[in-house]
What does this fold into?
Amino acid sequence: MNFPPPLAGEGQGGGGMADLLDAVEIETAPSPDACVLWLHGLGADGNDFVPVVPELGLQERAVRFVFPHAPLQPVTINAGMVMRAWYDIADQAIRVEDERGVRASQRHVEALIARERERGIPASRIVLAGFSQGGAIALHTGLRGEEPLAGIMALSCYLPLATSFGAEASARARQTPIFMAHGLADPIVPHALALQSKMMLETLGYRIEWREYPMPHSVCMEEVQDIAAWLRRVLP
It folds into this structure.
């Protein structure tokens, strides 16, 4: 598969796009009519999942992949080191959540979704995806949106700010298909925490396609194949 080389996204946008993050972009074909907005995990950057694109086998579809770089900020659990993060993490058990950071990242992602809509791609053709912290922000943001998306892909993650979710969830976003996948041996985000989020969402009426794999906090080839099949369904 031969795709055009990645392009660096613009750091500043017009018309209220001051919060627009820098991003790596790949288009599988000219004039894309769909977008996958994919958020990386803690300490990585937008380049992290770029190598996955050719493995998805979507060359027959015109899809724009957008891989934004999270803001740089100190992370408490990593001794306060400054790194790319969607929000702060104070402890491994995530007993105290960084609500301010989560909501700030929500605004960043909403700005990226708005830009895709300005470029002519409707919400119904936008998939919001993410791994680990990025997956948490994808769930948090996508399920609060005013319009349903083509899908939400949440890998090795959980639903943050779950206690406020019921009051803030968008009724229209309940139509959005959700793909959740997790490693059974994940030492970073416990499998039980992801399962708890999945069960809560199902109780509220959300459609979840759930997958488990014998892997740690990572992505395996079987998972990539399942992701590709799901993307073909939600972006026909």
The CA atoms of residues 142 and 179 lie 12 Å apart. The longest strand covers residues 34-39. Confidence is low (pLDDT under 50) at residues 1-18.
